[in-house]
Amino acid sequence: MSRECREKLSLNGIWKCVQDEDDQLEGNIRNKPVYHAEELTWTDILVPAHWQKAGYEDFQGVMWYKATFRAPPKKSDKMFYICFDAVDYYSEVWLNGVYLGTHEGDFDAFEFNVSDFLHNGEENILVVKVTSELDTRPERKKIAKGGLYHWDCLPVNQEGLTDCPEVPSSVNAHYPNPLINPGGIWKDVYLEERGKVHIEHIQITPYLKDDYKKATIYLDVELNNNNSKEARIDVEVSFLPHNFRGKIYRWKRQSYFQRPGTSSYSMTDQLSQPKLWWTWELGFPHLYKAVIEVWANGVLVDKKIQIFGIKEIKMDENWIFYLNGTRVFIRGNNYLSDQFLSLMTKESYQLDVQMMLDANMNTTRLFAHAEQEEFYQLCNEKGIMVFQDLPFQWGYESTGLFIKRAEDVARRFIRMLYNHPSIILWSCHSESRYHDYNKLDNMLLRVVKELDSLRPVIKNSVLVSEEDLPHYFETLDDFTTYIGTHLSVHWVGWYWGKIEDAEFYNPMFVTEYGTQSIPNEDSLKKFMNQESLWPVNWEIYRTWGFQTNIYQTMMGSVMTQSLQDLINITQDYQVQFYKEHTEALRRKKYNQVGGLLQFHFVNTGPSIDWSIIDYYRQPKKAYFAMAKAFEPLHLSFNGDITEGELGRTATVIPWIINDYNVAFENYEVTYKVFLEDGTLVDQQKFSVPLIEKDSVQSFESLTLPVAKGETVTVTGQLKDMNGTLIMENDKVIRSLPSEDEVQDPFKSPIRL
Predict the structure, then answer these.
(1) 446: which residues sit within 8 A by CB, 6+ positions away?
(2) What pLDDT is recorded for position 172?
(3) In the chain, is it the N or the C terminus that has fewer CB atoms within a 10 Å radius of its CB?
(4) What are phi and psi of 454, to 5 degrees?
(5) Which segments within 337-475 are labelled E, that is strand?
(6) By the 8 A CB rule, do 113 and 79 touch?
(7) Which residues contact 323 (CB under 8 A, 6 or more apart)?
(8) pLDDT in the model for residue 143
(9) Is residue 611 part of a domain?
């Protein structure tokens, strides 16, 4: 924003606050915090910050905030707005005793025109009531905060699970009841001086055509005219390359006469040979910069810059994605940076995004929430796609009043994020319940499709189908049966089945898969005391999220010799899980499998759960296993050991998966086969004249007798035409179970 058009007075700093746990201070006509502040004892609090991170760690309920500031002198051609970049969750605002309004939601900015109530050149008193409570019915929640409030990767009150993860009753002791609801003024607050005519919002929609050689740019601008009479408005638009060198486009000046109030204007223009936005492995993420200048009665009154990208994203009925007409296989994660987003900085986002890139990920699923603007900017710049959930997770109140409020939240959510080219899909609800699916989710789906017709949108994050999902289910049994045959979460080897069962599953798309593991010892000691760590206090481990019963079932005896031994067992199991599942599913690339999103990337708080990077950003062993399993050009092996007429034989099959959009010529594969005791029994070498772009290819299998041992091990290398090592990999070949032995938790086939 150019300085000559808008001036900001920051109101950040030390404010005063009063705790009102039971919401009593506004319970009578006096409203003490606003009109009788001297009767209360106010204490200091930092703004911006969640109050749990500003000295009020255990507080939930209502917090009253108060700030005093001196306003600049009044100017006849200027307006003044109190602006909040985000408040968590409900907020009500008074200025100098005048009630300004209310806002719901933790994610987006809001503002109030205070020109008529501001004491210019004098002291002003700003009071904000912020409400953030623990919901007494978490399966019928009244707040739309998604994964930032209610998620089993957050601090929750629950006993160790004894069966499968789906425990739909909040009165069940295994149900994850929330313990913390972040609250407070967690982003910047400022007084903004702006012209009486100014820009409210900009939305840019690129539409590609003529085989991607041309783009129509649709520019929608909302303008506010606060004058008492109409004004002549001129809008000038320029498009400049943002992160590359190229042509500058200037649109013809558009002129309008605008009545008082807010009006919207739509403009279009054509770009020839546009530079497209690509993921990092398919090309370069070209970004443009739109500069919009607004003139009123011949005077420049506002200017805004909007970064955008030109791309087309489509998803077919088999859940295969196409970016600018090019097929792309999704390799990604589930991500929620921190339950207290106020702790995240641009630098911490840069670290997380770089770790995604280093792990060869091209996509991140933002789990039922929105991150800060800086994260999306980094994804735009680095070429990482965003699978964007709306802020709805598990169950919600099924009343018309809540659904109407949720519609408003959804509209503002899409509006806020619309211009980011990195977003490739909207997901309306994560793991919704039967009553949500039939009511809330139908509304969300309709609203998102109405607001964004060019991106794919899905109704439910864990259900996939070759056609549209049903609009509703008449009975809970119908809903449960449908889930069993269309589930996209892939917990084979954690909640059910065994790791080696991965070869038998062929899901269309995987939105979650993973296992828990214990963080490194140094990280554990930062949030658990030594007495609980070792000897192991299993009850304490459970309070930090560790599913000890699953650990015992999947990894055997809990009798370990040391804490490091326990850590290694869980982390090594997680490594094996990700290696086996990721490679097995990548070998089925486009054979109904369109992509994989591991669950999950980083701890959102100190805990023991499914992350591959702990809260202190220390990678577990599985992080490096994921980075290897996600290499775009990948050598892989599979096989089987069988008993037949010729005795015991092992079969080994080499594979090459290429996720790049370029072909490779004259490569070479070498591999060796060892018995369980380390005896070398065979070695092979063969040339690969052509590795086709975006392909998966198997090669001639090797069958050899094995007289002893239960497994054989394959180690192999892929080298280019110059003999340079591209990658090396290994595989333990075991006897595979029969299809009848593969466990299915829903007693119906999951694309076997």
Answers:
(1) none
(2) 60
(3) C
(4) -100, -20
(5) 363-366, 385-389, 423-427, 457-458
(6) yes
(7) 278, 279, 282, 311, 312, 313, 385, 424
(8) 94
(9) yes
Q: Are residues 188 and 200 in the same domain?
A: no
| CATH number, position 550 | 3.20.20.80
Output the six-digit token pair for 568. 């290694």
Given a contact cutoff of 8 angstroms between Cβ atoms, the answer to whether 457 and 426 are in contact is yes
Structural tokens at position 623: 């992080």
List b or e across 257-287, with b for residues whose CB sees 16 or more CB atoms inside 10 angstroms.
ebeeeebeeeeeeebeebbbbbbbbbbebbb
What is the per-residue burial (b if ≥16 Cβ within 10 Å, else e) of 447-484? bbeebbeebbbbbbbbbbbeeebbeebeeeeebeebbe
Residues 251 and 367 in one domain: no
**Would you state the pLDDT for residue 746?**
41
pLDDT of residue 30: 85
Segment 195-207, tens digit of pLDDT: 999 999 999 999 9
Tell me the residue length of the chain. Answer: 752
Same domain, 410 and 552: yes
* Same domain, yes or no: 26 and 136: yes
**The pLDDT of residue 159:** 62
Same domain, 482 and 565: yes
Low-confidence ranges of the chain (pLDDT < 50): 1-3, 163-168, 745-752
Residue ranges making up the domain that contains 557: 313-630
The single-letter code of the amino acid at 507 is P
Decide if 141 contacts 392 (C-beta within 8 A). Answer: no
Query: Does residue 107 lie in a domain region?
Result: yes
Q: Helices 373-382 and 346-358: crossing angle, nearest 10°?
A: 40
Q: Is residue 611 located within the same domain as residue 700?
A: no
Q: Which residue, among 603, 600, 598, has the nearest Cα to 581 in the 3D structure? A: 598
Same domain, 467 and 613: yes
For residue 117, the domain's CATH number is 2.60.120.260
Tokens of 301: 């009154």
Per the CB < 8 A criterion, the answer to whether 156 and 170 are in contact is no
Peptide bond into 471 cis (omega under 30): no
CATH number at residue 293: 2.60.40.10
Let me know: does 414 contact 449? Beta carbons within 8 Å: no
Position 708 scores a pLDDT of: 74
Task: Tell me the three-class secondary structure of 659-707, residue by residue.
Answer: CCCCCEEEEEEEEEEEECCCCEEEEEEEEEEEECCCEEEECCCEEEECC
Q: What is the dihedral of CA 34, 36, 41, 47, to 10 degrees?
A: 20
Phi/psi of residue 521, each to 5°?
Answer: -60, -40
At residue 383, the pLDDT reads: 98
- Token pair, residue 406, equals 């949720």
Which residue shows structure tokens 């670290």? 351
Of 192, 220, 252, the position where a domain reaches its end is: 192
Are residue 643 and residue 599 in the same domain, yes or no? Answer: no
Type of residue numbered 115: S
Name the residue type at position 59. Answer: F
Residue 740 is given by DSSP the state G
Q: Are 544 and 365 in contact (CB under 8 A)?
A: no
